[in-house]
Amino acid sequence: MDVATNQGRLSEAARNFIARRHKLLIDGKWVDARSGRSFAVFDPSNGQQIAEVAEGGAADVDAAVIAARRAFEEGPWAKMTPVERGKLVWKLGEVLEAHADELAEIESLDNGKPIHDARAVDLPFGCELLRYMGGWSTKITGQQIPISAPGDWHAYSIREPVGVVGQIIPWNFPLLMAVWKIAPALAAGCTIVLKPAEQTPLSALRLGALIMEAGFPNGVVNIVTGDGTAGAALAAHGDVDKVAFTGSTEVGRLIVQAAAGNLKKVSLELGGKSPAIVFPDADLSVAIPGTGSGIFFNMGQCCTAGSRLFVHERIFDKVMTGLADEAAKIRIGPGLDPETRMGPLVSEEQFNRVSGYLEIGRQQGAEVLTGGKRHGNEGYFVEPTVLTKTTPAMKVVREEIFGPVVCAMPYSDGDLDRIAKEANATEYGLAASIWTRDIGIAHKLARKLKAGSVWINVHNFNDVSLPFGGYKQSSWGREMGYEAIELYTETKAVAALL
């Protein structure tokens, strides 16, 4: 499909936005990068350029941080009451919802994800998260604390916004990840410098315009597009109080190193190699499509993707046949096609990464049950793939592929400790799913799994009220739920001798 045909599915609003000259949002104004440089943005369904975006660098990050600091210390944002702040965050959810179709189209073209998913998942979840976090603005409280020391004391704690926050988001859910980051930070009263992924900057820029439309004061949210140079400058900046990052574990380590200069607070949401465990009593009419969706949703580009599939040997062949059938049903095509259920991978780099893992898997003895190849002759499409005869020593089992590739392994022992040991044999600990009719077994195993989210008879389930994050090298901190508010606040203790 050529770029004209694909963009021909866009609404006039989305088409006009994509065609404009894209600048940085700093202190409420759209400005060029100080270097004058820009970078190209591509449609992953055909590899053709669709937009040109300002390439921010260290000087632009510095200007954005100065604006955010001024807004935090001096501007109208600093003087707003919690209810005023909460109303603005809620209003942004309403504005987002009013532009949902346009945003879904921008997201689908830029990222490649099916427009069906953008409309059904990304946009509704983002709107609801803004409303949810807006509600927390008036409920951020401390405690009255009894003192054991001699004397007559009045002591209490206060939760205050942490300050200026640098937020670096990934390319797999560009708009949703932006909302995940900004919603709790705004509810807590922080100001923000947001750095989108260079592969997918467009929806964040459109979000920036909607933030201004909603009435947020200048400098509260600043958006600097660019590559890793801008991200590194933001993480290392001496006047940033906290950095929040979602992305690969490798880059997460670099973020930690960069943040060490002023010992700023750091939260990280990183990689995963999540197990899905299917017991012999599982309802296969639920488990087969459920585990299929668990790995193939969003082209497998989910940190929680169920990429290690453990199936009891008694039902292994049946599950494999069913999973291959599920893969065959998936309609692959450009994201803007409403019939598409699996789009392209986000970039040529990611396509090469996933293709490389498939080749390594074959070389190390994995058998391709279905898929395993490029789909079509243009764009970055990879077939949904099931690998069998995989072992824990293989790279495809140990390392995060971040594509539509699942490694299936039979198990024979019903001992929960042994099952948990195999499932936990990874440096990651983000998520896991358990598929069984025995709810007692499910809850017992859930306690043994080292994962931040454990799902029973479902995979990739999230809710705005549930804390999200992981164990081990998958996460520092938790997002969503009240725990996200805690990420963006400091606790102050006050003690008065009466």
Quick description:
With 498 residues, this protein is α/β, with parallel strands linked by helices. It has helices spanning 3-7, 12-19, 58-73, 76-79, 82-98, 100-111, 115-136, 174-188, 202-214, 228-236, 249-259, 284-296, 316-329, 348-363, 395-398, 416-423, 439-448, 481-487; strands at residues 24-26, 29-31, 38-43, 48-54, 153-161, 164-168, 191-195, 221-223, 242-246, 265-269, 275-278, 308-312, 367-370, 385-388, 405-411, 428-429, 431-435, 453-456, 471-472, 475-476, 489-497.
Model description:
The mean pLDDT is 97. Helix 5 runs antiparallel to helix 8 (174-188). The chain has 18 helices and 21 strands. It has 498 residues and is α/β, with parallel strands linked by helices. The protein folds into two domains: 3-270 and 475-494, Aldehyde Dehydrogenase, Chain A, domain 1; 275-464, Aldehyde Dehydrogenase, Chain A, domain 2.
Provide the descriptors you would attach to this structure in a database record.
498 residues; alpha/beta; Aldehyde Dehydrogenase, Chain A, domain 1; Aldehyde Dehydrogenase, Chain A, domain 2; 7-stranded mixed beta sheet; 6-stranded mixed beta sheet; globular
